[in-house]
Write a structure and sequence with these properties.
mainly alpha; 2 helices; about 130 residues; about 75% helix
């Protein structure tokens, strides 16, 4: 009987130890599940932010393409204006040669305003402001 009682006491201790281990494992599992849910939520947030960033990149890509197209158009316009100025200089040189004019006495003034605003710049390169 005494051995049987000792065995029962040991069995109780083992059962209590096992119960504590099971409870500890349950607490750990619950904690890991909470951490897993937290990480999954953070992952969903990151995915959402990434999708937003991708959409923003697409929008920026479209704007960049539009700006590049506008720049090509402006470059083409300025190239045409430069060609026109060169052609006018050639005509002026031809006229001067035909009229036997000394080119050293004349100077063609070119300003950025004159290039950008041909109708609103006087011969001196000054901007003409119309008063209303």
């Amino acid at each position: 009987r005494q051995v049987h009682g000792e065995l029962q006491n040991r069995l109780k201790v083992v059962d209590e130890d096992q119960n504590e281990m099971v409870e500890d494992l349950r607490r750990r599992l619950a904690k890991e599940q909470d951490e897993n849910e937290f990480l999954q939520e953070k992952l969903r947030e990151s995915d959402s932010q990434l999708a937003d960033m991708n959409m923003e990149n697409v929008k920026l890509g479209k704007k960049i393409r539009q700006l590049e197209e506008a720049l090509r158009s402006v470059d083409k316009h300025h190239q045409i204006e430069q060609e026109d100025i060169i052609n006018e200089n050639i005509k002026l040189n031809t006229i001067c040669e035909q009229q036997d004019v000394d080119m050293n006495k004349f100077c063609l003034l070119y300003t950025s305003d004159a290039a950008d605003d041909l109708l609103c710049v006087d011969l001196g390169g000054r901007r003409i402001i119309k008063k209303k």
